Protein: BlaI/MecI/CopY family transcriptional regulator
Organism: Dactylosporangium salmoneum
Amino acid sequence: MRGFGELEAAVMRQLWAADGPVTVRHVHSALSDERELAYTTVLTVMDKLHRKGWLRRQPHGRAHLYQPVATREQHGAGLMREALTDSGDRERTLLHFVGQMTLDEAAALRAALNTYERKIADG
């Protein structure tokens, strides 16, 4: 699981912000507010994301409806898991990571760990 390229990330942000499945035209229209892109470019990127397993699609008339397979948070967690796995020394990596956190981020991490520990204990 690697990060997305710039255009892939822009497409994924649009899909994560959507209330449900959307068409290429919808994403193209939203992205065109930010930059000039050909419809076929967006179509190609979304097709590649589908083939890579990041998007699911379903036929919708002559088009397709696309939606992410994972939430933005699940994707971020996967990236963090991969970085931790690839780091070599997990404890030192975690110490460096925590050392870069704001107080609010540290509090959020502490709350997440407490929730996880309660879940394990109740499990």
User: Anything to note?
Assistant: The CA atoms of residues 63 and 111 lie 43 Å apart. Helices lie at 6-17, 24-32, 39-51, 72-86, 90-99, 103-122. The first strand starts at residue 55 and ends at 60.
